[in-house]
Automatic annotation (TrEMBL):
PROSITE patterns: AA_TRNA_LIGASE_II (PS50862). Keywords: Aminoacyl-tRNA synthetase, ATP-binding, Cytoplasm, Ligase, Nucleotide-binding, Protein biosynthesis. GO terms for biological process: asparaginyl-tRNA aminoacylation. It is found in: Cytoplasm. GO terms for molecular function: asparagine-tRNA ligase activity; ATP binding; catalytic activity, acting on a protein; nucleic acid binding; transferase activity. Its main location: cytoplasm. Homodimer. This is Asparagine--tRNA ligase. The keyword Repeat does not apply. GO terms for cellular component: cytoplasm. It catalyses: tRNA(Asn) + L-asparagine + ATP = L-asparaginyl-tRNA(Asn) + AMP + diphosphate + H(+). It is an enzyme of class 6 (ligase).
Length: 430
C-alpha cells in the first residue's frame, strides 16, 4: 500500500510503501537509521541487518543523501520520536542515486544557501517554515470565507499607484507606461463597492533599495476592503484575523513549531483584543526611552517600532499618524485634520509592522484635493474618484504582509527564509 508520511498514523503495524528521499543517515554495525522525507513530513526508517536480506542492508548503508526511492516497511509507534512513528524497513527500491549533493549536514553560510535555495527548501527547517506559511494561507481563506468576504483578484499591471511611483517597477505596456503593483488596494475599494466585503491575496512589488531583514522586493499581501466599515470596525477585523491565524498555526503546526524551536507560550498569548497607542503617545514614549532623534511628523523606523513593541506581549496598534506621512487616500480624523484614521499593527519580538490599514476618504472633493496635494495625475485616478460619485459610503481596509507574519510566527530572523524564492536587492537567482 503506497501512502505518504503524513498518513502513517492511520497504518500502525501495517506494511506500507513510501515514495521518498534520503535526507540523512547513520549506521552502526547491525542497524542503519535512514532519515526519510516525502514532502509531507519526515520519518526515521530503521533497517535491522538480521531482519533483511544481506543486499538490502548493504544497499541501505550505501545510500547517498537526496537519493530518491520507494521504501517498504512496517509502521511502528515510537514515543522517542517527535513525529511519534518510525518505519521498520523491509525493502528499498532506488529510483535515482544522488551524487555529491551540495548541501551537506555541516554548517553553510547564508549566501551559499541562498544560491542553492532550490535545494535548501528540502531541509527540515525550511520545510517547517513553508508548512507554517501554507497554514497561514489556508487559515486566511477560512477566516474570510467564514466571515462573508468574497475573494477578488486585482491586476498586477497598473497604470497608477496607490502611494506614488517612486518605489515602483516601471514597464512598457505597448505604447504607454505601466507599473508592477505595489498594492491591490485601490482596485479592492472598487470591488468592495460591488461586493461589500472583499479580500485579495497576491504578489506585490516594491523597488525599495533596502537590505534589512524585514524587506523583500517581491512579497505577498492579504488585502481586505469593507464597505460601511469605519475605523473601529476595521481594527476589530484585524485583531480577530491575526488571532485566528496564530491559533490555527498553534493547532495544526505543532511539529513544525517544535522543529523550529519556537516558544509557543509567546504565541498562545495572541488573542484579541490588542493594545493600542496613538502616534502622539508613541512619540512621548520614545522620548522617555531616549530616542531624541524622533520628532512629531517623522515616520518610525525599525528601532522605534521594536522599542514600542517590547512593552507589550501582543501585537500593538499605533493609530492616528500625521497626515503628512501617510498616503493620499486616508480619511482625516474628524476632530483633528493633522492626523488620519489609520493604524499600523506592530508584531512583538522585533518583527515590526505586519499590517497597515485605514479608513479611506469617501468624500469626492476631499479626495480630489488630496490627489492635487500629492502631485498625482487626476486623469489617471478618474475611475478611483468616480467611486466617490456614485453611492459613496464610509469604507476601510488593510494589508497584511505575509512574509513578515510568517517570520514572526515561526521566529525566523530574516524574511528571506519565509518565501520559497526570495527576491532581494542583490538576488534574482535562482
Amino acid at each position: 500500500m503506497k501512502i505518504t508520511i503524513a498518513e502513517v498514523s492511520k497504518h500502525v503495524d501495517q506494511q506500507v510503501t513510501l515514495g521518498c528521499w534520503l535526507a540523512n543517515k547513520r549506521s552502526s554495525g547491525k542497524i542503519a537509521f535512514l532519515q526519510l522525507r516525502d514532502g509531507t513530513g519526515f520519518i526515521q526508517g530503521v533497517v535491522v541487518k538480521a531482519d533483511v536480506p544481506e543486499e538490502t542492508f548493504a544497499q541501505a548503508k550505501s545510500l547517498t543523501q537526496e537519493s530518491s526511492m520507494y521504501v517498504t516497511g512496517t509502521v511502528q509507534r515510537d514515543e522517542r520520536s517527535p513525529f511519534g512513528y518510525e518505519l521498520l524497513v523491509q525493502g528499498i527500491e532506488v529510483l535515482h542515486e544522488s551524487v555529491d549533493y551540495p548541501i551537506t549536514p555541516k554548517a553553510h553560510g547564508p549566501e551559499f544557501l541562498m544560491d542553492n535555495r532550490h535545494l535548501w527548501l528540502r531541509s527540515k527547517r525550511q520545510h517547517a517554515v513553508m508548512k507554517v506559511r501554507n497554514e497561514i494561507i489556508r487559515a486566511t481563506y477560512q477566516f474570510f470565507n467564514e466571515n462573508g468576504f468574497s475573494k477578488v483578484d486585482p491586476p498586477i499591471l497598473t497604470g497608477s499607484a496607490p502611494e506614488g511611483t517612486t518605489e515602483l517597477f516601471a514597464t512598457k505596456y505597448f505604447d504607454e507606461d505601466a507599473f508592477l503593483s505595489q498594492s491591490g488596494q485601490l482596485y479592492m475599494e472598487a470591488a468592495a463597492m460591488a461586493l461589500g466585503k472583499v479580500f485579495s491575496f497576491g504578489p506585490t512589488f516594491r523597488a525599495e533599495k533596502s537590505k534589512t531583514r524585514r524587506h523583500l522586493i517581491e512579497f505577498w499581501m492579504i488585502e481586505p476592503e469593507m464597505a460601511f466599515y469605519e475605523f473601529e470596525d476595521n481594527l476589530k477585523v484585524q485583531e480577530e484575523y491575526v488571532s485566528f491565524i496564530v491559533q490555527s498555526v498553534l493547532e495544526n503546526c505543532k511539529l513544525e513549531l517544535n522543529t523550529l524551536g519556537r516558544d509557543v507560550s509567546v504565541l498562545e498569548k495572541i488573542t484579541a483584543p490588542f493594545p493600542r497607542i496613538t502616534y502622539d503617545e508613541a512619540i512621548k514614549f520614545l522620548h522617555q526611552k531616549g530616542f531624541d532623534d524622533i520628532q512629531w511628523g517623522d515616520d518610525f523606523g525599525a528601532p522605534h517600532e521594536t522599542a514600542i513593541a517590547e512593552s507589550y506581549d501582543k501585537p500593538v496598534f499605533i493609530t492616528h499618524y500625521p497626515t503628512t506621512i501617510k498616503p493620499f487616500y486616508m480619511q482625516p480624523d474628524p476632530n483633528r485634520d493633522d492626523v488620519v484614521l489609520c493604524a499600523d499593527l506592530i508584531a512583538p519580538e522585533g518583527y515590526g509592522e505586519i499590517i497597515g490599514g485605514s479608513q479611506r476618504i469617501h468624500d469626492y472633493e476631499l479626495l480630489k484635493k488630496r490627489l492635487a496635494e500629492h502631485g498625482l495625475n487626476e486623469e489617471a485616478y478618474k475611475w478611483y474618484l468616480e467611486l466617490r460619485q456614485y453611492g459613496s459610503v464610509p469604507h476601510s481596509g488593510f494589508g497584511l504582509g505575509l512574509e513578515r507574519t510568517v517570520g514572526w510566527i515561526t521566529g525566523v530572523e530574516h524574511v528571506r527564509e519565509t518565501i520559497p524564492f526570495p527576491r532581494l536587492l542583490n538576488r534574482l537567482y535562482p
